[in-house]
UniProtKB/TrEMBL annotation:
Segments forming domain MrfA-like Zn-binding: 536-639
InterPro entries cross-referenced by the UniProt entry: DrmB, MZB
Organism from which the protein derives: Sanguibacter keddieii (strain ATCC 51767 / DSM 10542 / NCFB 3025 / ST-74)
Designated name of the protein: MrfA-like Zn-binding domain-containing protein
Lineage: superkingdom: Bacteria
One Pfam family, short name: MZB
Length: 672
């Protein structure tokens, strides 16, 4: 678990833990902890993380550097050259490494090995409301209390000498909670709600320079139900006036604030703001890339070697030595670096990569625009086409991949249903890296990713980004390409497929951001083979959870489904894996299911269950018709949908009619 720490430069009250002379009742900086996967996909930099008594925002990477400097030597690195190259495409060539979260394991719960590490965070929002008297104000008006070193969940802000709502002062401090209204804009800026400005209709209080405010909230579950009151002049204004299109016109323009970086945009921001509730699902969308590390994907490129050189020698020596390979080689030998064994040609190519002029902003934007996420899957697909060398094909130690053919080969019943290849993935390593985040619209719903992707460092050019390593096991299954191609041609000429395509176009036009208007909706639509493999993956995950010892939410999918194009062969396969940052992802339950008889039994039962649903015939006949714009057909939470931790497409592009023949399903079932 990675600790969340409120640091001295971040917390307006200061990091009181730095005062060594304080007693055992001192306030502490540690306020909570989270798993690395949570910090990557749910509570990354720029998001709001709910703690029991208040909310914090993990800070940008600039503030993480002071955490790393507490340990001697270079920070640890995550080795994944192919993923690093993809990250550099989006963030620039100055990105030299992938780093894990600043965390160290502890021998016991009471030991202090990792107390100096943690993720820096800010208290945000910094306007609080007293639960005893409704006083509304910045957190400097409240007292911070966090004295138990083993109970960071008890950290809280309190209102001392609270007068109460009826004028009866409390004998004990009363907890204060975050005021839950924020302002956001499509370019990723986030700001406190201007309560003083709001209650005075955009003006100033006539009775006081710093007027005392109250937030009265007597109802629950009705949106912006609070009322703001100035106790000095008596002005009152309800928060529900800020809701909807009419309310948006009453809000101030965006100030261009990035609270995770502690700055405002110098050029300001021209966008209108939008009222957001703390914890809203569209307040923060992560932008991430991930790969399953294969041996070929682990081969160093000139770009990745250049990144290693830059970390080792630093930019000043690069500028001083230029192309003097003798000095480079001498330095690498003196440092006893593994890079000293590089051939002269590889070293020259890496140095040339370092000395090349940085790409212009236009070139970076073009790289981002042309980046195809499928390019991360192609090397994995190519490697999975190889036959394992013996009963266990162990890759190099860095990739950590172990493949083996299943006992008994491919079952004859599976072969009759066009399953041509099955592999047991005894061990694998998956690496996930964060690029940034967006607000209001998901990254895939915007077309100007370069503008909408919020930066993670103050200068916009981070020299590293955070990554997590997950280890686990899995089962790989591949379908016959000729059978899939013939089936795909038949399906994509049908009225059912046209209904799905039209629904996707309506969904795209209704839900995608304004910046995506010039995008062809069909360019974001998945081919029929993807629907087939995606639906198959979901029904297998549901069935495998009953036999593998894992919960369905801990199993995830990786779909290889695309037509042949220049530079890459056609693909029709899926990988069901369980991955975790510890040994819980490698219990062996999935690998057992890859055995011939086991897999045939699991798949037969999965397809049999897919032919029935307790919501039939409604589910079996579900076809989107105008104005409906849902992105699934005969699929619901009873029969084919999976948890968000399992599905790579948020339960879109699913239809049981493509797996098996259903009553009235027009005979499109791939399996018989």
């Amino acid at each position: 678990m990675t600790e969340i720490q409120v640091g001295e430069s971040l917390d307006p009250l200061g990091d009181l833990e730095s005062f060594e002379s304080m007693t055992a009742t001192k306030n502490r900086a540690k306020v909570g902890s989270a798993r690395p996967s949570n910090l990557l996909y749910t509570y990354g930099p720029g998001s709001t993380m709910d703690l029991p008594s208040f909310t914090v925002m993990p800070a940008g990477f600039d503030d993480w550097e002071s955490i790393w400097r507490r340990r001697p030597g270079q920070p640890p690195r995550v080795h994944a050259p192919r993923l690093l190259d993809a990250v550099r495409t989006h963030l620039g060539r100055q990105v030299a490494e992938l780093r894990p979260f600043p965390w160290a394991p502890k021998a016991t719960a009471q030991s202090k090995e990792g107390d100096d590490l943690g993720v820096s965070a800010r208290v945000f929002p910094q306007w609080m409301r007293c639960t005893g008297c409704d006083q509304l104000g910045p957190l400097t008006r409240f007292s911070y209390r966090n004295t138990n070193p083993y109970r960071p969940d008890e950290a809280r802000f309190e209102h001392e000498k609270c007068p109460g709502r009826r004028g009866k002062p409390s004998k004990r401090p009363i907890p204060a909670v975050p005021a839950r209204y924020l302002l956001a804009c499509p370019d990723g800026h986030l700001d406190e709600f201007p309560y003083d400005w709001w209650v005075h209709q955009g003006g100033n209080c006539p009775s006081a320079d710093v007027p005392p405010l109250k937030m009265e909230d007597r109802t629950v579950g009705k949106g912006a139900s609070a009322t703001i009151t100035c106790t000095s002049c008596g002005s009152r204004r309800a928060m529900n006036e800020a809701q909807g299109e009419a309310g948006a016109a009453k809000l101030p323009r965006c100030r261009g604030r990035h609270p995770h970086l502690g700055l405002f945009e110098q050029a300001g921001c021209v966008n209108r703001t939008k009222l957001m509730l703390l914890g809203a699902s569209n307040l923060w969308f992560p932008a991430t890339l991930s790969i399953v590390v294969m041996p070929e994907s682990n081969v160093e490129t000139a770009a990745s070697i250049a990144a290693d050189l830059l970390v080792l020698v630093g930019p000043k020596r690069v500028e001083k030595w230029q192309g003097d390979l003798g000095r480079w080689h001498e330095f690498l030998e003196d440092e006893e670096s593994e890079l000293a064994t590089l051939s002269k040609e590889k070293l020259a190519a890496a140095v040339a990569e370092l000395l090349a002029p940085p790409p212009s902003q236009e070139q970076i934007e073009e790289q981002r625009k042309n980046f195809d996420p499928v390019s991360l899957l192609v090397p994995e697909w190519n490697y999975l086409q190889r036959e394992p060398l013996g009963p266990h094909h162990k890759a190099d130690g860095t990739s950590g991949l172990i493949l083996s053919p299943p006992n008994g080969g491919v079952h004859q019943k599976l072969a009759a249903n066009h399953v041509t290849r099955v592999l047991a993935v005894d061990k694998l390593r998956k690496v996930n890296a964060v690029l940034g985040f967006t607000r209001i619209d998901e990254m895939e719903r915007a077309n100007d990713v370069g503008k909408r992707l919020v930066r993670l460092a103050r200068d916009g050019r981070p020299t590293w980004t955070v990554a997590t390593e997950d280890r686990g096991e899995g089962v790989y299954l591949q379908l016959d390409e000729e059978a899939v191609a013939a089936w795909e041609t038949k399906v994509e000429a049908s009225d059912l497929w046209e209904a799905h395509r039209a629904a996707h176009e309506r969904n795209f036009n209704a839900r995608f951001s304004e910046t995506a208007k010039d995008v062809d909706p069909d360019a974001r639509f998945r081919p029929a083979r993807y629907w087939l493999l995606h639906t198959l993956s979901h029904v297998l995950i549901r069935e495998m959870a009953m036999y593998s010892g894992y919960s369905a939410a801990s199993l995830s999918e990786r779909i290889y489904a695309w037509r042949a194009e220049e530079g890459r062969p056609a693909a029709a396969g899926l990988l069901i894996v369980t991955t975790a940052s510890d040994s819980d992802g490698t219990l062996g339950g999935l690998v057992q299911l890859s055995e011939s008889g086991n897999l045939e039994r699991v798949m037969s039962r999965a397809l049999r269950r897919a032919s029935r649903c307790s919501s039939d015939p409604v589910c079996a006949h579900r076809t989107p018709k105008e104005p409906e714009d849902f992105l699934h057909g005969a699929a619901c939470h009873t029969c084919a949908m999976a948890s968000e931790t399992s599905c790579e497409r948020a339960n879109r592009f699913l239809d049981r009619r493509f797996l098996v023949d259903l009553p009235g399903g027009q005979g499109f079932g791939f399996f018989h």
